[in-house]
Amino acid sequence: MRKLLAGLVAAGSMLVATPAQAAVAQPGLTQARVTDAWAMTRGSSRVIVAVIDTGVSALPDLAGRLLPGRDFVNHDNDASDDNGHGTMAATVIAAAGGNRTGIAGVCWSCRILPVKVLNAKGGGSYTDIALGIRYAADRGAAVISLSLGGSDDSPLLRDAVAYAGSKGALVVAAAGNRGVSAPHYPAALPGVLAVGGVTPTGARYEWSNFGSWVAVTAPGCNPAQGPSGAVGPYCGTSSATPFVAGVAGLLASTDPAPTAGQIRSALVATRSRTSRLVDAGAALRALPLDGDVVRPFAAFGALRSVVRGRVTVTASAADQHGVSRVQLYAGGRLIATDTTAPYSFAWQSAPRTGLVPLELRVYDRRGNLTVVRRTVRADNTAPALRLVKSGRTVTARAADPSGIARLELVVNGKVTARSVAATRRFTLPARARTVVVRAVDRAGNVRVVNGKLGG
């Protein structure tokens, strides 16, 4: 039996930009809180997501992460894409982020297993789809993404889905694009996570199938890359499905590795109550924490080596299951605790002058702790400054443990000379009414001495 795709791009066409397009608006990532999830994980190369579709073409955005696959249409091992649909699905899942190329997929580090079961026109058989599901399961796919389907139930598909489940794979499939409540297969099968499509406001797209059998929804229009690398809009439940598959890949990337059932439960339990929209960040936090021994990432933000007065200390922290709190210690004393990113602390360094050990303590939700240390010099004391006058000259000598930033000669209220040296001989103007010398240390402390004294 031949079956058609769940849906290509809206209206059967795709508007494309140049292959080198670097900046693409992707509001769906924010809408489904994928950007929040990225603070916890951006995927793992140990996670394989199978794309069972028209094949997947090699692109720079998938470089090093596109595995050898299988073509069940032409019965060979060349799973390249002769339609475009499968490549677009793969880039929604796993296009590399932060490389100024194409788009950012949901799971940056996940690997893609291409399985071609649909021909160049987008047609295919339940037999080939079932074979493709089994093939993906046998090759260790944690997630199997199917942006395809038909209106008829099938024992072949049921058996293949059950087999994939027995191998530990989560099967994700498109709900279909007829705008009806009638079941669409394999999405409506037990054990399959059926995905519908919603608008940027969370409303159901009129073309998206619906019903109690649709477990979750995702943004129904997303930018994607075709086989040439060109970027364009990709709409339909065919687009929403790989989006969810990418989110599932993020969840599968955590340690200890969750089961397919745990991933499904987390996705369903944290979906929006009204639209069933997936919430990637909340789903990650909903995974079981038992057995998590991975310490969170922690790092100081930009911080000067010499500081004075009130200092803002920033920190970066991330964890696969979420950070519970970040603490700043100075000289062994707790300064403050922050529980929400971006992490920032106000530390009053005065009246200290000298080396101060700083310490960041980052705890994840399981209680795993990472400690990072840095030493800064607190300088809240003005530099020493001595002047020696001789005729129309004044020699200034400054000293400070942090170093001298500059010396300034101020005549009649205006700076008339500067020096970055710690010692400098200044010549005084003949008509100088007021003369002072300022010494500024590297921390910004200032010492002022009357230039007409001291000699």
UniProtKB/TrEMBL annotation:
Q: Where is the Peptidase S8/S53 domain?
A: 46-271
Active site feature: D53 (charge relay system), H85 (charge relay system), S238 (charge relay system)
The record's section on PROSITE patterns has: SUBTILASE, SUBTILASE_SER
Positions the record marks as coiled coil are none
What is the residue range of the signal peptide feature? 1-22
Which InterPro entries does this entry report, sorted A to Z? Ig-like_fold, Peptidase_S8/S53_dom, Peptidase_S8/S53_dom_sf, Peptidase_S8_Ser-AS, Peptidase_S8_subtilisin-like, Peptidase_S8_subtilisin-rel
**Which SUPFAM superfamilies does the UniProt record give?**
Subtilisin-like (SSF52743)
The record's keywords, sorted A to Z, are:
Hydrolase, Protease, Serine protease, Signal
Give yes or no: UniProt keyword Hydrolase.
yes
Family named by the database record: Belongs to the peptidase S8 family.
What name does UniProt use for this protein?
Answer: S8 family serine peptidase
Q: What is this organism's lineage?
A: Bacteria, Bacillati, Actinomycetota, Actinomycetes, Micromonosporales
